[in-house]
Amino acid sequence: MSDAAAPKIALVGVEKSFGRKRVLDGIDLTVAPGESLVIIGGSGTGKSVLIKCILGIMRPEAGSIRIDGAETVGLRRRGREQVMRKFGMLFQGSALFDSLSVWENVAFGLVQGRGMDRAAAREIALKKLAAVGLGPEVATLSPAELSGGMQKRVALARAIAAEPEIVFFDEPTTGLDPIMADVINRLIVSSVRELGATTVSITHDMVSARRIADRIAMLHKGRIVWQGPASEIDRSDNPFVDQFVHGRAEGPIQMEVRAA
Amino acid sequence: MTETLSAIGAVFLAFLAAVGGLARFAVQALAAAASPPYFPRLIARQVLYIGYYSLPVVGLTALFTGMVLALQSYTGFSRFNAQSAVATVVVLSMTRELGPVIASLMVAGRVGAAMAAEIGTMRVTEQIDALTTLSTDPLRYLVLPRLIAGLVTLPVLVLIADIVGVFGGFLVGTYKLEFNPVAYLTQTEQYLETMDVVSGLVKAAVFGFLIALMGCYHGYHSRGGAEGVGQATTHAVVSASILILIFNYALTQAFFSR
Residue B76: CB partners within 8 Å, gap ≥ 6? Predict the structure, then answer.
C-alpha cells in the first residue's frame, strides 16, 4: 500500500502560531498513496490546525507541505483551486449549508466548483446519498430537518461526491452515539476503499481510530510524539500514547484548564 | 509621557490596521468580479432581499418623514411668511438628503445586521471553510453578490423613498395645511433640478455598497460562536451607520460645494 519514495502528502518542519501560542512546532509527517492516517491527540493540541494548513485554509509560518510532490504553501488562487480539486473534507460539525437542500449540499462542489450541469450533479448526489444509506426522500429536505447522524452522512456524501484523491475527516464521530459512530466509521472505511483515496483523519475517539486507521500519529503540544501502524498502538512503549489510549488523568500529558 | 504616546500610537496603528484590512477585503472581493464564474442567481436573491423586502419599512419611513417635514417647515416658515416654500423644501430635502440617508439607515439596520449574522454563523460553523474545500472562493460566492446587490438596489429603493416622501408632504400640504394641490405640485417641480435627484441616487449607491461591505466584513471575520456573531451584527450596523453619515457629508461637499 505504502510507497515511501512518493508520498501523497509530505510535511516538513511545519510551524503555526496564534499570537504567542505555538500550535504547530515543526511537524514532519508523510502519508502514502491509499493510506489511512489517523492523528490522535487531546483537545487543543493542534489537530484541526494541522488539517487546515494542509487544506490551505490556514497558512503556516514555516515549513513545507507537498501534495503529490508539489509545494502548496504560498500557492495563489488558480494553483490553490487546482490542488483543492484533489481534496474532500468532512467537518466536525458537518458544516452543511443551511440555505441549500440536502442534494444541493452534496452536489455543491460539482456544480459550483466544477461547473457541472445541475441535473447531472443531482443524479450523482442521489447516488452518493444512497452510498451512505440515505434514500431519495431525504434529498429535498433542509439540513436542519435531519438528525446529527444523518447530517454526518450527508457531509460524508458531500466529501466524496467529486471522488477526491485525498479525504480529510475532522472528528467524524464526535457527538454521535456509539452505534451511529460505528455506522459512520464503517461508511468511511467502505466509501474510501471504493474510491481508493488517501485519508487523513483527526480524532480523540480511539474506537474510531482503530476502526479506520492504517497508521496512527500522536500529536502533543504541536509535535508528533509517536507514529506507527495502528496494530502497534497498544504496545507503543510511549508514555504519551499509553496515557491517551487508556484515558488516564495521570501521566506526561497535563490538560490545560484555560485556553492560551 | 512615553507610555501615553505609546498608547496613542498603539490605538492609531490599530485603527490603520483595521482600515487596511477593510480596504484589502473590499479590493479582494471586487477583484473577483474581473473573471467568471459569476453567480447571477445569488445576486438576484440578494436584490430581492435587500430591495423588495425592504420596501415596506423604507416606504413607511419615507412617508412619515415627508409628512413631518411638511408640517415642521410650514410651522417654522410661517414665522416669516415663507409658507409657500414648503413644497420646495420637502422635495429638495427628500431627494438630496433625507431620502438616501433615512432609507440607507433603515436598510443598514435590517439588511446589514442580517448579512453579518448569516455570514458570521457560516464562519463559526465552518461553512466558509467548507466552501473553500469545495473549490469555491467565499469572497466570490458570498461577498461579491451582496456588494453588487447593495450597489444597484439602494438607488432604486431611494428613488421610491423620494417619491413616497414627496407624496407624504403632498398629503399633509393639501389635506391639513390646505394648499391647492395643483399649486403644490407645480411648486414641487419648479425648483427641482436633475442634480438634486442624481446626487441622492449616487449617495444611495455608495451607501448600499457600504452597508453590504460592513455586513460582509464583520460577518466574515466573526469569531467565538454565538457571542462573536452577535458582536459582528452590532459592529456591522454601527459602523455602516457611522460611515453613511460621514460619506453623506463628503458627497454633499463634493456635489454642492462651490
Answer: none
A76 touches chain B (CB under 8 A): no
Which chain B residue has the Cα nearest residue A164? Answer: B134
Helix axes B225-256, B99-107, angle to 10 degrees: 170
Question: Cα dihedral sign for B183, B186, B190, B195?
Answer: positive
Residues 6+ apart with CB under 8 A from A154: A94, A96, A102, A105, A106, A129, A132, A134, A138, A143, A146
Residues of B within 8 A of A97 (CB-CB) are 122, 127, 130
Do the Cβ atoms of B141 and A112 come within 8 Å?
Answer: yes
The C-alpha cell that represents B202 in the structure block: 449616487
Grid cell for residue A111: 456544480
- Which chain B residue is nearest to residue A55, measuring alpha carbons? B133
Q: Could you check whether the bond before residue B37 is cis, i.e. omega within 30 degrees of 0?
A: yes
Query: Are the beta carbons of A55 and B125 separated by less than 8 Å?
Result: no
Beta bridge pairs of residue B80:
none
CB-closest option in A95, A98, A109 to B135: A109
Q: What are the tens digits of pLDDT across the range A51-95?
A: 999 999 999 999 999 999 999 998 887 888 889 999 999 999 999
Domain ranges of chain B: 37-256
In three-state secondary structure terms, B228 is helix
Helices (H) and strands (E) in chain A, counts: 8, 10
Give CA–CA dist B196/A76, Å, rounded. 46
DSSP state of A58: S
pTM of structure: 0.88
Looking up cell 441535473 gives A119
Judge whether A96 is closer than 8 Å to chain B, CB to CB: yes
pLDDT tens-digit map of A201-257: 999 889 999 999 999 999 998 999 999 999 999 888 889 899 988 888 887 887 665
Three cell numbers, residue B159: 428613488
C-alpha cell of residue A189: 472505511
Lookup result for grid cell 512518493: A6
